[in-house]
Design a protein that fits this description.
ten-stranded mixed β-sheet; Rossmann fold; 12 helices; 60s Ribosomal Protein L30, Chain: A; 2 domains; 380 residues; alpha/beta
Length: 380
C-alpha cells in the first residue's frame, strides 16, 4: 500500500463479501439481525447492525489516536453503520476523519436522499470529512476508460490523504511536523482537503502545490480554508526561494477567497535525496465552515453499491502531542513482514509510538465488491 505503520480493519454485514477482504481484522456486524446477508440498501438496518456489534468495533479501534473511515453513502451498511463507527472512535478519544462518496445520479433519488441524510449524520461524529461525488469521475475519464481504472482514481484521493498524514507523522523533517500539528489542524475542522502533489523542474514547488489541491474529484476547494498544514519534501538542494514562492501562492489563494481573513498555516520541510530534482508537497486544509458542503463526521462503513471507495477506519493511538486519546498505556505497533489491511502510525525512533487503524467495511453487492476495495489495497 505504500503506507507506513498502517493497519486495516474490514467491517461488513455481508459475510461473503467480508471473506474477500485482505484486512487482518474483519468484523461481521449485526450477525443476529442480518444473518450475514447484508443490509438490503436500508440504512436503518446498517445502523442497527453496527449498534449490535458496538463492543467489537470499540475493541478493534481501542488505543488509536487517529481513525480514517471510508464509505460509499446511499445504501445500507455504509450509510447506517459509518456514524456508529465514528461514535465509537470519538468515544475512545481518537481524531476521526471520514472520506465518503456520494452515489451517481443514475442511482436514483432514494439513494441520493439516503446519502444526504447519512453524510449529515456522519458529520456530527467526525472531526473532519472529505466528500467525493461519484459523478465527478466523468470529468477525468474518457469513453474507453475501464470501470476499475475509473474507480481507482477515487481510491487515490483516499490513499493520498492517508499517506500525506502518515508521512508527516513518521518522517523526521528539517522543519518538523508531528501529530500535535495534525491534531491542531484537523480537530473539529469540518470539511477538508488532503492531497499530495509532485513536480520537477522550474517552478516545481508551485506546480506540486497546485497538483496537491486541485483534484477535480474533491467537493471542496482550498479557497476559504482557515487552517492549513503545508509540507515540502525535496533533495538537499531544495531552495528556500521555492518554498517561499509556493507558500505565498497558496496563502494568497486562501486569503483572497476568505475576504482577507488570514489562515493559520503550519509548515514543514523534509529532505529525501531520492527525489533528486523533484519536489513533493503535502497539503491538509480544513476550517471551511458550513459553506464547504461537508462537515465534521467520524465513521464509515462500506455499502452494497459500486462506490470506488471501501470503508476504512484508521486509528492512531498513543502518538501524544495534542491528541485527545485516553491516557492509557500505548501499545507499540509491531513490525509487519508484509502489508496488512489495517493502519498504524509508528513515529521515528526516539519518538512516541502509536497505531493508526484503517477500518474498511466491504460492499455487500456480490460482484461489485472488487470495485469497492481501493486498488492500492487490492494490489498489495
Amino acid at each position: 500500500s505504500g503506507l507506513q505503520g498502517v493497519e486495516f480493519v474490514a467491517i461488513n454485514t455481508d459475510s461473503q463479501a467480508l471473506l474477500q477482504s485482505k484486512a487482518a481484522t474483519r468484523i461481521q456486524i449485526g450477525e443476529k439481525r442480518t444473518r450475514g446477508l447484508g443490509a438490503g440498501a436500508r440504512p436503518e438496518i446498517g445502523e442497527a447492525a453496527a449498534t449490535e456489534s458496538r463492543e467489537q468495533i470499540l475493541e478493534a479501534l481501542r488505543g488509536a489516536d487517529m481513525v480514517f473511515i471510508t464509505a460509499g453513502m446511499g445504501g445500507g451498511t455504509g450509510t447506517g453503520a459509518a456514524p456508529v463507527v465514528a461514535e465509537c472512535a470519538r468515544e475512545l478519544g481518537a481524531l476521526t476523519v471520514a472520506v465518503v462518496t456520494r452515489p451517481f445520479s443514475y442511482e436514483g433519488m432514494t439513494r441520493a436522499r439516503n446519502a444526504d441524510a447519512g453524510i449529515e449524520n456522519l458529520q456530527q461524529h467526525v472531526d473532519t470529512i472529505i466528500t467525493i461525488p461519484n459523478d465527478r469521475l466523468m470529468k477525468i475519464i474518457d469513453k474507453s476508460t475501464p470501470v476499475t481504472e475509473a474507480f481507482s482514481k477515487v481510491d487515490n484521493v483516499l490513499w493520498q490523504g492517508v499517506k500525506g498524514i502518515t508521512d508527516l507523522i513518521t518522517n523526521q523533517g528539517v522543519v518538523n511536523l508531528d501529530f500535535a500539528d495534525v491534531h491542531t489542524t484537523m480537530a473539529n475542522g469540518g470539511a477538508a482537503i488532503m492531497g499530495i502533489g509532485e513536480a520537477r523542474g522550474e517552478g516545481a514547488s508551485v506546480a506540486a502545490a497546485k497538483a496537491a489541491i486541485e483534484s477535480p474529484l474533491l467537493e471542496t476547494s482550498i479557497e476559504g480554508a482557515t487552517s492549513v498544514i503545508l509540507n515540502f519534501t525535496g533533495s538537499k538542494n531544495l531552495s528556500m526561494f521555492e518554498v517561499n514562492e509556493a507558500s505565498e501562492w497558496l496563502n494568497s489563494m486562501i486569503t483572497n477567497a476568505a475576504n482577507g481573513r488570514q489562515a493559520n498555516i503550519i509548515w514543514g520541510i523534509g529532505v529525501d535525496d531520492s527525489l533528486e530534482d523533484s519536489v513533493r508537497v503535502t497539503v491538509v486544509a480544513t476550517g471551511f465552515g458550513a459553506s464547504a458542503g461537508s462537515t465534521p463526521g467520524t465513521a464509515a462503513a462500506q455499502e452494497e453499491t459500486t462506490t470506488g471507495i471501501s470503508e476504512d477506519w484508521i486509528r492512531m493511538p498513543g502518538l501524544g502531542g495534542a491528541s485527545s486519546a485516553p491516557k492509557e498505556p500505548v501499545r507499540p505497533a509491531q513490525p509487519q513482514a508484509q502489508a496488512r489491511p489495517a493502519a498504524a502510525i509508528v513515529p521515528p525512533s526516539g519518538g512516541q509510538q502509536g497505531r493508526m487503524n484503517v477500518v474498511e467495511p466491504n460492499s455487500g453487492a456480490g460482484g461489485t465488491d472488487i470495485i469497492d476495495i481501493p486498488a492500492w489495497m487490492r494490489k498489495r
